[in-house]
Amino acid sequence: MASIISHRLPVLPLRSAARLASRAYASEVLKKTALYDFHVKHGGKMVPFAGYSMPVQYSGLGVLASHLHTREGASIFDVSHMLQTRLIGKDRNRFFETLVVADLENLPVGHATLSVFTNERGGIIDDTVIMQQHDSLYVVSNAGCADKDLAHIHAHLKKFQDQGGDVEFNVIADHSLIAVQGELREAHLISTKCISNRPPVPLPKPGPKAAQALQTLVGQDLTDFKFMTGSLLKLNGVECHVARSGYTGEDGFEISVPTPEIVFITEALLRYPGVEMAGLGARDSLRLEAGLCLYGHDLDDTITPVEAGLTWTIAKRRRQLGGFLGSSIILPQIKDGVTRRRVGLIVEGAPAREGAEILTPDGNRVGTVTSGGPSPSLKKNIAMGYVADGQHKLGTPLVVKVRGKDQSARVVKMPFVEAKYYK
Asked: What do we know about how this protein assembles, alone or with others (predicted)?
């Protein structure tokens, strides 16, 4: 295929990540995470993103190299700009089930689920990860949607409380968030530098031995510490919430750390050989290869979960009972179908970027690209977008218009790069 980059990978343009929000926040006073000075010290190129000044890359490792390093080793991402919240009260599950499509009543303690907030029209207000804890729900959602998410939640919370519902909702303002991503090595990386003062030991062969190494240092059985589960662990004596999850398609962990300790924990991780800092540029290309959506691009408040290929987030019980905003629109779509669907594309020629038209071979417009760019791992150009129902089947030949030129494309299965989640 002409899309294969045969001799060398092109440098991923900084705009592939920086453009995501720089225009929207160009004139705004940007917030800083607790790691801002740390990023600058380590050569981070700071750009506006979701109202924050965030690193798009680092001077010692470009976007392309950082992407490949995460696939082959381990990288640390600052995701402290994400909105962390907590719900408490005996009616917390019942309240939040009115806003999201997840089955929280049957979500076991210590387990998490990807879900979406929906509106009355069935559109997606935001995507979110919800973890069931012993006495609360721990929720992580997108920084760029924080203001509207909070307004939406508080509006419905007041009504629920006025009707006698027992629930409280609070922003977690005293913790920062980092993600360590890259195969099965992270468990070992955390264990050797963050949970003890022992010097690093040789990396084990990727696999269950990594979790076993962590288990011996935390003093508890972590055999069942699988993908989308979480636990409170002490990292170098600091109690943190650790979840086995991420946004890259790699095995990894998201670690919520008391903000006064975030530099200490990040530096401890970074001292381990083979761990590097990574920025928005690599995060964007990694999540695209993993077939993961970016809100505001692949998802918005006019797109339903069924159209987005996220029907699987709607649990069986919720399909039977409904009870969430927009269920009267979303549930019939599961049975009757939709007029557009999110698909993955392999594109020949130049990379297809957001907004590129998708056509049939005979020239009829059937959709639009929502995310796209070179895949460093596959050495091909990939894209996601929405096409008319019937054009979404695997292998369907299509055309993408890039800078006025028609380029061949075909529908392929996502993720583009096989996920390495530890299940």
From this structure: The glycine cleavage system is composed of four proteins: P, T, L and H.
Residue 8 CA neighbour count, 13 Å, CB half: 4
* Nearest C-alpha neighbor of 265 from the set 202, 184, 175: 175
DSSP code of residue 30? P
* Residue range(s) in the chain whose domain bears CATH number 3.30.1360.120: 29-185+204-335
- Ligand-binding site membership of 168 (annotated): no
Q: How many CB atoms lie within 10 A of CB 257?
A: 24
| N- to C-terminal Cα separation, the chain | 34
CATH architecture of 339-422: Beta Barrel (2.40)
Q: In sequence order, what are the beta bridge partners of 127?
A: 116
Is 3.40.640.10 the CATH classification of the domain at 29-185+204-335?
no
Q: Do residues 413 and 360 touch, judged by C-beta distance below 8 A?
A: no
Within the chain, what is the greatest distance between any pair of CA atoms? Answer: 66
**219 backbone dihedrals φ, ψ, rounded to 5°:** 75, 25
Question: What pLDDT is stored for residue 30 in this prediction?
Answer: 96
At 194, which amino acid appears? Answer: C
CA distance 83 to 81: 6
Quick one: angle between helices 63-72 and 280-289, nearest 10?
50
Per-residue pLDDT tens over the stretch 153-192: 999 999 999 999 999 999 999 999 999 888 644 433 443 3
pLDDT in tens, 91-139: 999 999 999 999 999 999 999 999 999 999 999 999 999 999 999 999 9
Report d(CA 251, CA 369) in Å as an integer.
Answer: 28
Tokens standing for residue 183: 């195969």
Half-sphere exposure of 247 (CA within 13 A, CB side): 26
Amino acid 65 reads A
> What is the pTM for the complete model shown?
0.88
Bridge partners of 132, per DSSP, are 137
Give the whole-angstrom CA distance, residue 35 versus residue 267.
Answer: 10
- pLDDT tens column, 324-337: 999 999 999 999 99
Q: Is 335 helix (H, G, I), strand (E, B) or coil?
A: helix
